[in-house]
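Complex 330.
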Amino acid sequence: MTTVPSIKLSSGYTMPVVGFGIWKVPRENTADAVYNAIKLGYRHIDGAYDYCNSAEAGEGVRRAIKDGLVKREDLFITSKLWNNYHRREHALAMAKSEVAEWGLEYLDLYLIHFPISLQYIPPSEIKWPCFWTDPERTKRTPLDPVPIAETWAALESLARTSENPTGIFKSIGVANFHTQLLYDMLGYAKIRPAVLQVEHHPYLTQKHLIDMAQENGITVTAYSSFGPQSYLEMGSGRAAAATSLFENPVIKAISKKHGRTPAQVLLRWATQRNIIVIPKSNSSERLAQNLESTSFDLTEEEITKISGLDIGLRLNDQADLSPPIRIHTV
Ligand code: NAD
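Predicted structure with nicotinamide-adenine-dinucleotide bound:
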């Protein structure tokens, strides 16, 4: 079975460099998908409240533990706090109910999903895919003026530390933050974010953000490592207009040279620079291929060449949806 290396986080815990991302894994398949991923050798699962499949993912995890495939302590499980729950009391309640959804005693990592606080919607009324909109789906989402500092303090109170050994999150972190917000956080955080999860692929390298995070001891996780691929099914015009990274001549030439697939080259380009990857696939053959992506090395020259493909193509952009989602403050 493939063994994947891990990175030590600032919290002291370790995180496997390849995980299985479960955004858009259909709810009805999620338990089996997670179980089978663990059977293949995955030890890291990336979920979120927003993906609407935490209970099913937890079912897969618990079945794998029960069948003796793995022990809980060998797994690294991430989830995320959604935008409508940034107020202290909502963040605390949602964090606890997310751990209960997974049916586990703790999660390894809990991230603030976006640095955007939207008006509270009771969980019973929130329905995918209207997460970014109000319940009437008017595409006008009211902002709730909650500073990140309030949300972060709520998560800090749940983190597992020497003062709080029963904390429900071994590590806490953020997603979709930029440098300015990270610098601001570092000014007040009692616990530094262990992880920053952002969009990262050769068409959007975000070099300065990644350098800044890594220089400050924040481990970076890349999402959407395959660039446009994931956004084609979302109807993104930007994704449709771009050349697939799998068809990009630079990626194809390097993959041919190494006898690896373009997907493996894209993942190795990240992990070789200490960036964690969480590719999603519904096929076990591709899951296996992605997991095996750390078993070869690119040259420095190849890494530089791939980084040179940057065109600032941001795909996970709510303003790029049709119609665009706007948040209003008045
Ligand atoms: P991805 O880059 O992992 O791409 C997924 C697509 O690539 C799917 O169409 C899949 O079929 C295809 N694919 C997977 N492996 C392949 C292979 N070996 N060869 C060819 N095609 C392959 O996209 P993603 O799902 O956007 O990102 C991965 C994970 O990142 C998500 O599942 C989620 O967990 C996380 N994520 C987080 C955020 C955030 O805001 N924090 C946003 C997007 C994604």
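The pocket of nicotinamide-adenine-dinucleotide is lined by residues 21-23, 46, 113, 175-176, 197, 223-226, 229-230, 261, 263, 278-281, 286, 289-290, 316 (CB under 6 Å).
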